[in-house]
TrEMBL record:
EC number: 2.4.-.-
Pfam families: Glyco_trans_1_4, Glyco_transf_4
Keyword Protein transport: no
Gene3D superfamilies named among the record's database cross-references: Glycogen Phosphorylase B
Source organism per UniProt: Fodinibius salicampi
Domain Glycosyltransferase subfamily 4-like N-terminal, first and last residues per copy: 7-154
Record key words, sorted: Glycosyltransferase, Membrane, Transferase, Transmembrane, Transmembrane helix
The protein's name: Glycosyltransferase
Superkingdom: Bacteria
Transmembrane segments: 36-54, 66-85
A GO molecular function held by the record: glycosyltransferase activity
SUPFAM superfamilies: UDP-Glycosyltransferase/glycogen phosphorylase
Length: 373
């Protein structure tokens, strides 16, 4: 984005100094202690920002949502500078996840209401955030744009399968089903392991690669596969950096995203195309590497893959259905190549950081132009 605008000022605590020439860091003090860092950041930001608003008068201010941002929004409005806010989660859902009390829920709702009323534009990463706002607030949808998370296609790009197998010391003769991501329960790895046991019975020359767990999570998986008699066919790895993650994806014949029922939006019946909580970046990472995918049939996962022809969708927590989808792809390499190419094409046109930056700059430019009239 820095290449598309004249100057960017970043107000952040302890930010790295390796910026482009037209990006400048303004250090904001913060007490890095749980329950206090947001409050101390806000208190320290106010005088720094006010001085900047008086001396520099920026064309627009861009902020990522935090629970005290509404205070900053009211100050910015006094100076008649437009504010654009990025929202990465539905606070209403998070209230339920974290079991927040009634007072805290009311505070977060007030924070959102004030922000939506006093900002010039809102960027959301998923459509369900807007749907949630519509149920709770009176909103101006013309001020809201959905810009999905992007993937770095300089890191996640098609690579030679055999080369990456060799680099990672994987079996060169076997086909590999690969999962990269966290090992938390909603990712559906228990269903995946049950499905893999079915796959192995019909297609013995295959292994399952799971990447991204903590030490305790990996031990839990080991305990599960010990009883299933498939421990020699499953390899487990802790979380790796993105370049290494891309190597694992490129070593795959098939990638998987077997989300369970917990990821569905609350108060929704679970069926083909049901929205899920968030925008799954792993799906884009898989597609960017030109790999076919089997994923649960949520709107942002398997439903999307079916729609663009990049993968196969299955219902959540159904190991038999997941196994069948994996077996069908293992038996058809040409179908795998075709789906991989369609996925890469989709990501290149819709889900890269370059695409996200272009859309963001377009929104900021239109808001600046409107404000200057």
């Amino acid at each position: 984005m820095a290449k598309k605008v004249n100057s960017i000022e970043v107000f952040a605590p302890g930010w790295p100094t390796s910026f482009d020439d037209n990006v400048h860091h303004v250090n904001v003090l913060q007490w890095p202690k749980k329950h206090f860092y947001t409050l101390t950041y806000t208190i320290c930001l106010i005088p720094v920002l006010v001085v900047h608003l008086i001396k520099e008068r920026p064309d627009v201010i861009y902020a990522r949502y935090f629970n005290l941002l509404f205070v900053i929004a009211l100050i910015i409005r006094l100076f008649r500078v437009p504010l654009v806010v990025e929202h990465n989660a539905d606070i209403h859902i998070e209230n339920n996840i974290y079991n927040r009390g009634s007072l805290l829920r009311a505070f977060y709702m007030l924070s959102e209401r004030i922000l939506l009323k006093n900002c010039s534009g809102s960027i959301v990463v998923a459509d369900h955030i807007v749907e949630s706002w519509e149920k709770r607030f009176s909103i101006d949808k013309s001020k809201i744009i959905t810009i999905r998370n992007g993937v770095d296609t300089n890191i996640y790009k098609p690579g030679k399968m055999l080369y990456n197998k060799k680099v990672l010391s994987l079996d060169m003769e076997k086909k590999h089903i690969v999962y990269v991501g966290s090992f938390v329960q909603y990712q559906g790895l228990h269903t995946l392991i049950k499905a893999f046991r079915i796959v192995v019975q019909k297609y013995p020359n295959v292994s399952l690669i799971l990447v991204g767990g903590t030490t305790s999570q990996i031990q839990g998986i080991k305990d599960q596969i010990q009883s299933n008699g498939i421990k020699n066919k499953i390899k487990l790895y802790e979380k790796v950096d993105e370049p290494t993650a891309a190597k694992f994806v490129n070593a795959a014949n098939i990638c998987v995203a077997p989300y369970n029922k917990e990821v569905a939006l609350p108060d929704r019946s679970i069926s083909f195309g049901t929205p899920m909580k968030g925008d799954p970046l792993k799906i884009y990472s898989y597609m960017a590497c030109e790999r076919p995918i089997v994923a649960t049939y949520y709107r942002e996962a398997g439903y999307l893959l079916e729609k663009i022809g990049a993968g196969v969708s299955v219902p959540p927590e159904k190991p038999e259905a997941l196994a069948k989808a994996l077996l069908d792809l293992l038996a058809d390499e040409s179908k795998c190549r075709e789906k991989g190419k369609k996925g890469r094409e989709y990501v290149s046109n819709n889900a890269t950081w370059q695409v996200a930056a272009k859309k963001t700059v377009g929104l900021l430019s239109s808001i600046i132009e409107k404000n200057n009239k």
